[in-house]
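Q: I'm writing up a methods section and want to include an example of the input and output format. Could you take the sequence below and give the corresponding predicted structure tokens, formatted cleanly so I can copy it straight into the document?
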Amino acid sequence: MTFVLGLTGSIGMGKSATAAMFRAEGAPVHDADAAVHALYRGAAVAPVAAAFPGVTANGAIDRAALSRRVLGDDAAMRRLEAIVHPLVREAERDFLRGAVAAGRPLVVLDVPLLFETGGEGRCDAVAVVSAPAAVQKQRVMARPGMTEERFQAILARQMADSQKRRRAHLVIDTSRGFDAARDQVRAAIRAFAGRDGEAARRALAERD
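A: Here is the clean output for your methods example:
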């Protein structure tokens, strides 16, 4: 059965670039953020708009307006997650079904808050993307519109990087450049591809 590798990491750690490296090496990647973006233009529009009036624009969810409504409000965030997470899980199961049918030896679930939401149980192993805190902050603060207050609010929702590293089966260090990170991605694929995994089997049985 297809081996499911979870990929996660805190903001600014280089997770998106690492996921792209897995794709470039031929490993299918399910991007939870991309799934949410698609849902905000489709199936999630009506229920999210009902829960948070005024967050739509041109028939889609306005992510900036929604962020202003929920960031820093734990109750609002939980209400949003209760709507969106089941829809993302369904998209993830569709992805796994296709990978299993195609005989893929390894797939990657790219999930920003994997540990925070208990998502490691949906994976056979977890890789955490990491970098020193100073590198992380430099990357994040260079983003357009980022403020110290917003950065700290995002960090407050995320498990500490040190704790993620302790819980990971594998840590990918992105502070040493793209070539070093790519070598670590290739090593991960060699280590896990072709191993018999249970996560995909459980997910597909859950759907059935």
